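Folds abound. A case:
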Amino acid sequence: MESGNIADWKIEEGQAFGPGDVLCEVETDKATVDFEAQDDGVLAKILKPSGSQDIKVGAPVCIVVEDEDDVASFADYNVLDDVSSADDETPAVVASSDTVTEAVVTPSPSRDIEDQYILSPAARHLSQSKGLDATVLTGTGKGGRVTKGDVLLNLDSLPPLPVVSAVPPVAVAASVPVAAAAAAAAATPVYLSEAEVPEPAGSFEDVPNNNMRKVIAKRLTESKRDVPHFYTSVEIELDEVLALRKKLVNDHEVKVSVNDLIIKSSALALRDISAVNATYNDKKSEIVPSDDVDISVAVATPTGLITPIVTGADKRGLSSISSCVKDLATRARDGKLKPEEYQGGTFTISNLGMFGIDEFSAVINPPQAAILAVGGGSPRIIPTPYVEGAEEQEPPKVKTIMTARLSADRRVVDEATAAVFMKAFQEYLSKPHLLSL
């Protein structure tokens, strides 16, 4: 975590508090957590009010005093962020502006390049995209050519591009020189000022990303860019799983979901194929195996995707996994998870079967080495084996088939290991009575 937001202050300025009292709610990249006081005190001044965004870790958010009489001393206290650095840079900026003015007014005495080539391609693109005329600058490039650096240094002082009016139609009987001049003028690009750009049809609203979605975008981009993904898929029959669910409800009044059985099957497969139950240390370029099977379960929330962790999943029963997932999912949607409940984990499961998705590929959640993408079960007609010499062949059967796809980090897991893991997962889930072993 590098920055956070102040969601809400729970006490007011001048109010006393004690150990354990909640001072404010802090919105991190994954959840909203309470900021609790560690000692007695009085809140003298709130420096970052409710709703403050992108507060850097370590930045002051309030002033606390021991004596209530000291509160009045901070009534008019203000924090000026980066005042010293801003003051230090101001003279440089002013001096730069003076230089720019001279550059604009004074023509280049050493320019020996044609006017149409006076701007480099990068300088032309930059200046035109901002609606500025950079041809007035004294270029520092070869032959007096204006470079992108010249434009960047003088952005604040460049004049706007001139508006070129449309060329009037030329008479048919016009002479050849006039026609040539008109053609050259027509080839000149027409630049519109910002005020003349037409408004798009319809209405729209720009919605800024919250902290969670910013972090998700950053980490998944890094994962797809830096982690060598490869994929293995397997199809699994779910008929025995569905029969076991009915039996547990009817005989024991225990309700478990297919996702609970998937978590348990994955945990046992990770226990058996421990090479997949590992993380990768990017700084040291080494594999870090784990003795604990802690499975992160992807949960969709209004603010983004979060992955609370079912710890020790291989040692839990189905009822324990079911109640744990329900509790974590509820608190995840309410933004009440503790950091240790969603940070870490050795393996992730993302299940979109309940949304009608048959199969998909998931992005690895570093530093974990793998993630399992689970689709929904759908009925299929499965042919039965042909028995030679039998008078009647067994007719085809209708089976419920689910597709699971493993995304693995090739630096940690090789293709053969991934295949063995998927085979073990398939064996456990298609024969759920093995889950008790």
Remarks:
- Residues 163 and 196 are 10 Å apart (CA to CA).
- Confidence is low (pLDDT under 50) at residues 82-109, 169-176.
- The first strand starts at residue 3 and ends at 9.
